[in-house]
Specification:
Blueprint (H helix, E strand, L loop, with lengths): L2 E6 L2 E6 L10 H16 L4 E6 L4 E3 L4 H4 L5 H19 L5 E5 L2 E3 L1 H8 L2 E5 L3 E3 L13 H8 L2 H10 L3 E2 H7 L4 E3 L2 H12 L3 H17 L2 H16 L2 H13 L2
Parallel strand pairs: 2-3, 3-5, 4-6, 5-7, 6-8, 7-10
Antiparallel strand pairs: 1-2, 8-9
The structure holds ligand LP2KCY5N.
Organism: Planococcus lenghuensis
Family: Belongs to the enoyl-CoA hydratase/isomerase family.
Subcellular location: Cytoplasm, Cytosol
Length: 249
């Protein structure tokens, strides 16, 4: 199975389960996100968690071994817009969503984590919006979420530098909520959530959702998807993806 969904003590967790390919996202994982969203909406959970299996990576973004077959704007758009829609629905979930970034988050992996309300980042993890090195922009809404989350210049720096950041840098620029060393530190964070009535969490989340629904976030995400789909079709992107795939062979 490419994902696992479990509920423990009022916490619903989705684990991307493709560690051999660093938890890259394909359509099967997207099906998992559909199920996860439905499960959270139907539950009385305190909060939801997204993480990756294996410990090397939280998520390495889109599965380039599959998505390199998408050559044109028209071919790329449905994949980008499907995942953007899923991340928007995750952002709008009625409870706080926590990304447990237990390894590298690269490209779309950073977009998934940025759609969440909190990012707990393992001290050894490195994360980056490296899309620029592939001659594309973020295409799943993560650029809009980053600009919504960080101070403007820090968000722009992360997007335009297209480089990997250390966990310390991520704490410094505000992307990481907390750094952690051991899994027990995550348990401590979740226990603090459980101590407060879940209606309180839901009420604060509703305030955030209300702000995003009225400040045009969805239309910015739609624009982001269209920009990425256009750049996706250019030779510079296909050449960069070929270089990545050939290097790892
Ligand atoms: C499509 C949407 C777009 C967006 O909107 O944001 C994107 O997400 S673009 C994709 C961005 N992702 C990448 O460019 C992939 C980057 N991957 C890496 O930098 C590294 O793999 C890693 C995540 C830092 C992990 O490094 P390491 O632990 O050293 O593992 P390997 O590099 O040896 O990887 C193991 C294995 O997995 C394959 N792999 C990794 N990521 C992907 C991926 N995104 N798509 C396809 N395959 C991936 C890698 O090729 C290795 O394969 P083998 O050599 O066959 O074992």
């Amino acid at each position: 199975m490419t994902y696992r969904i479990e509920e423990t003590d009022g916490v619903l967790t989705m684990t991307i389960n493709r560690s051999e390919i660093r938890n890259a996202i394909n359509h099967s994982v997207m099906d998992g996100f559909e199920k996860f969203i439905a499960a959270v909406q139907d539950s009385r959970a305190h909060c939801a968690v997204i993480t990756g299996a294996g410990g090397e990576a939280f998520c390495s973004g889109g599965d380039l071994s599959v998505f390199h077959e998408l050559k044109t704007e028209e071919e790329a758009f449905p994949m980008l817009s499907r995942m953007a829609d899923l991340l928007y629905r995750i952002k709008m979930l009625p409870v706080p969503v926590i990304a447990v970034v237990n390894g590298s988050a690269v490209g779309g992996g950073c977009e998934i984590a940025t759609a969440c309300d909190f990012r707990l980042v393992k001290r050894e993890a490195k994360c980056g919006f490296i899309q620029g090195t592939l001659a594309i922009t973020t295409g799943w809404g993560g650029g809009s979420y980053l600009l919504e989350t960080l101070q403007h210049d820090r968000a722009m720096q992360m997007l335009t530098s297209a480089r990997m950041y250390s966990a310390e840098e991520l704490k410094g620029n505000g992307w990481a909520t907390e750094l952690y060393e051991q899994d027990t530190d995550i348990t401590g964070f979740l226990d603090r959530f459980r101590k407060i009535d879940s209606n309180v969490h839901r009420a604060y989340k509703q305030l955030a959702v209300q702000r995003w629904e009225t400040n045009g976030l969805k239309s910015r995400v739609d624009l982001e998807v269209r920009h990425c789909a256009k750049l996706w079709a250019l030779d510079a992107h296909h050449a960069a993806v070929d270089r990545f795939l050939n290097k790892s062979r």
